[in-house]
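Q: I'm writing up a methods section and want to include an example of the input and output format. Could you take the sequence below and give the corresponding predicted structure tokens, formatted cleanly so I can copy it straight into the document?
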Amino acid sequence: MATRFKKADLCDKTVIRNLMQLYLHELTEYEDIPLNSSGEYEYLYLDHYWTEGDRYPYLLHKQAEIAGFAFVRKEEHYFSMAEFFILKKFRSLDSFSLKCAVNIIKQHVGEWRIEFLNNNEIGWGFWNKVALAVTSGDIKRKKLNETFDYIQFLVANS
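A: Here is the clean output for your methods example:
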């Protein structure tokens, strides 16, 4: 089964907006995310991924099926995986999530910092595997605040 990702076009925004509802619902296991008056989760930065040059939206596929999305953001001196979501039915298939994350990160050479909820050990384990696959340098886990930790590493030209 082919892993495929592409930089999302403006016409993909509705699909990602819909996937975002599933993603944010899953995150409520770790943090309180309220619904708006329409019964939807809000993601305030969605439009920014198509209007700002330092944001990169990706749509992920498993063969012809939509499988998830990823948002990469360029901060002052590093890249960040702002959001990353794979539909549950694809998560355990032949390391699909790992392959997607690795392929996307390799598109952005330089320093990386990926935040994750510090009570989400599954997230920590996943991002550590990703970092091991994309760097031969140091991988550091650091505390950001009471809620978030981050992993820091460098991606060099292949």
